[in-house]
Amino acid sequence: MSNNKPYLFSAMELFDQIAQGPDFVLLDVRNEKDFANWCVEGPRFFPYINIPYFHFMENVQESLARIPAGEKIRIVCAKEGSAKYVAEILVDNGFADVGYLEEGIVGWGNLLVPRRVNPASDPYLLYQLNRPGKAACSYLLISGREAMVFDPSRNIEAYIELAASHGATIIRTFETHRQADYISGGPALVEKTGCLNGANRLDFEGADFAYEAVADNDTFGFAAAGPEVKALHTPGHTMGSTCYLIGGKYLLSGDTIFVNTSGRPDLGGKWEQWARELYLSLMLRLRHLGDEIVVLPGHYTTWEEADKELLIRGRLGELRRQVAAFRQPNEKKFAEFIQENMRPQPGVYAEIRRVNGGWLKVSPEEANIMDLGKNECGASNYGKVGVSAEVLRQ
Length: 394
Description:
Layout: E1 7-9, H1 11-20, E2 24-28, H2 32-37, E3 48-50, H3 53-58, H4 60-64, E4 72-76, H5 81-92, E5 98-101, H6 104-110, E6 113-116, E7 125-131, E8 136-143, E9 146-150, H7 156-165, E10 169-174, H8 186-193, E11 196-199, H9 201-204, E12 212-213, E13 219-220, E14 229-233, E15 242-246, E16 250-254, H10 271-285, E17 294-297, E18 314-315, H11 316-322, H12 331-340, H13 348-356, H14 364-371, H15 389-392
Parallel strand pairs: 1-5, 2-3, 2-4, 4-5, 9-10, 10-11, 11-12, 16-17
Antiparallel strand pairs: 6-7, 7-8, 8-9, 13-14, 14-15, 15-16, 17-18
């Protein structure tokens, strides 16, 4: 029996190890169905195997024989306990370097990884907070002692702490639309910080919380000199979908434009009507924006969309030339493109939309379960259409 002990590691530590070049085998001990539905993904590929924990309970030696000997083993489960149980079995059977993920897949699902978007020469800070467990991006804009958040997730402490590390407090939070794939942290940020919550009324009419209605061409600023934040109404993914243009340089596009496609117009059950609105948003309402604008989307499909700095972004001109959603010659062809790429949405999306309107109250435990899993918000059928990896890395 080994004298070693398994150790606990955080979701951020796991991400950093994957990004830097993993030297371990990741062992997922959830059941086969949950593993097939959703698993850990990162900017590099790594050895990743699935042996459900109950196999260890039924036949330890057979399960151990399926794990590569002499390797570092990192274990993930649903909530932490099963991974710890399996980790102790591995250590007792001679594995020398064994760790298990803190809070399990729930911890991974709530992780936010910050990356600065704009150059150090700018007098403000713009961060993309990547949520790898959801393949979603939110944003934090800091100028002086004030900060604004865009599309926050429930992990609100990450935004508060990042702003505080730069001597700033959050004064506003914005929703690009009423999310269907994850529960917004906007109302919780308002409660925690007293900030204002901005959203388009078309998506939040009758919401069971206070918010400031945001309309097309509304502008917002900071007490100290800072970039102008301009709202651009871009209906289609939802009727209230709104992009935010930061300092005339960065377009926080929500689910209107992704790096490899557009958002889905079918989640609200009115795909033909909303597809037309989305087509007009892409081809007409954003026509005045220059090709040099940097698009910062709300989601991505795979890590192939990340650049060498692990940022999910693309120049608008490149997206116009390369992304299939922009290359449809007319409204009819765009509708056909959307119809070809439609797929059933997860059943939980209807409930999440109700939560994000304040009409359905859930416990933190229920929210964790609802929030699990990768987004399905793009009109791409998971890579069926897209842009070349070479373009994305430029």
